[in-house]
Write a structure and sequence with these properties.
Layout (H helix, E strand, L loop, with lengths): L1 E5 L2 E3 L5 E8 L7 E7 L6 E6 L5 E3 L7 E6 L4 E6 L8 E9 L1 E4 L3 E5 L2
Parallel strand pairs: 2-11
Antiparallel strand pairs: 1-3, 3-8, 4-5, 4-9, 5-6, 7-8, 9-10, 9-11
């Protein structure tokens, strides 16, 4: 299983970024997928998850600002991040869960003026 995340970068406070994650490999799909992040000096935390049928969950810190979505036909999951804050600065990881957790390599998001 490979999870290729992309779309990170530098954004000013209040700005937007869209992360993408392409899933590949020979396991049955669709599966639950999610985005996690690890800020400097902190533990990895869940940002958002989406079930195979589209049910979503968001961490309180991102509710109303981030939107997770998926395209099952393309094995893709997305994270639209709006109204970004400096506290959103972190490495963001794509996750796929089917009996075990699979992880992508991470993409850096920096929110700074």
């Amino acid at each position: 299983v490979q999870l290729q995340a992309s779309g990170g970068g530098l954004v000013q406070p209040g700005g937007s970024l869209r992360l993408s994650c392409a899933a590949s490999g020979s396991i049955p799909r669709p599966n639950a997928m999610g985005w996690y992040r690890r800020a400097p000096g902190k533990q990895r935390e869940l940002v958002a998850r989406i079930s195979s049928n589209g049910n979503t969950y968001y961490a309180d810190s991102v509710k109303g600002r981030f939107t997770i979505s998926r395209d099952n036909a393309k094995n893709m999951v997305y994270l639209q991040m709006n109204s970004q804050k400096p506290d959103d600065t972190a490495v963001y990881y794509c996750n796929e869960r089917r009996l075990v957790d699979y992880w992508g390599q991470g993409t850096q998001v920096t929110v700074s003026s």
